[in-house]
Amino acid sequence: MMSWSPQDIPDQQSRTAVVTGANSGIGFETALALADKGARVVLACRDLAKAEAARERIHEKTGGRGEIQIVELDLASLNSVRRAADTLRERYPRLDLLINNAGVMWLRQGRTEDGFERQFGVNHLGHFALTGLLLPALRDVPDSRIVTVSSLAHKAGRLHLDNLQLEGRYGRQRAYAQAKLANLLFSLELERRLRAAEASTLSLACHPGFANTNLAESGVARESPFGVGYIARWLWPFFTQNAARGAAPTLYAATSPQVQGGGYYGPAYLKEAVGPPTLVHPSRRARDADDAARLWEQSEALTGVHYP
């Protein structure tokens, strides 16, 4: 397993994968690798122009292997999530992979269309709603998988169940860490519920380690004072792996025959910063089943999406 690379991905022909945030970074590399193995890949993106450019790049890099489709999805809008889910269910009654990859990082305080704190709303609640709405297309499909991308930052996260929107307590890093902790709590709780329902789908989680992507561009580079963010952005490539390597844990979780439901995968070396994918360990808070159940209840109430 320590030597695994995307070249080891099994043939994906006849499989359909939905990848959120697939126009750049880890999402793009994930979609590219799956398409190169013959999968039909749906790029679920907010910016349709960027999604179309990504589709052209994938076609060019793969020589036309795989079928690339686009669906508009803005995770900051539950109306958009519902429209995207309706479109996906209509086009693809059967789904094999859902990759919950899209995210925002270290933003100034703000609200989604539905009034949620932006990082929690986009990173967790948008994906919670999308997964619930698409679950009927996945749950009876053999070897179907739901892969949720978390972060090393989850280890610093605390779940504020009495104040999930961080009213009066907002901090960029606090909000991001809580959202990434919520991703893991959700993924593990989803796996528990899938097993109880004897569903075919597996729920897994992963993180990219230190990867050089544009995720921090708006939150760090553009919004940091005195140009500090741009300096950090310039130095970042010297301390990170590229987006393709950062996508390896996602691809491993999505395709390897060796994974198990409830697994959490990340880079093998330097305290999970870089290297090939391997099984890693969530924080103690991420494994709190009581918190996960309470988060699930609040997420259903906030989104109005109740899982079948």
Automatic annotation (TrEMBL):
Xref: PANTHER family: PHOSPHATIDYLINOSITOL-GLYCAN BIOSYNTHESIS CLASS F PROTEIN, PHOSPHATIDYLINOSITOL-GLYCAN BIOSYNTHESIS CLASS F PROTEIN-RELATED
Protein known as: Short-chain dehydrogenase/reductase SDR
Ranges in coiled-coil conformation: none
Q: Is Amino-acid biosynthesis one of the keywords? A: no
Which keywords belong to this entry? Answer: Oxidoreductase
Q: Which domain of life is it from?
A: Bacteria
Q: Which Pfam families does the record match to this protein?
A: adh_short
Name a GO molecular-function annotation.
oxidoreductase activity
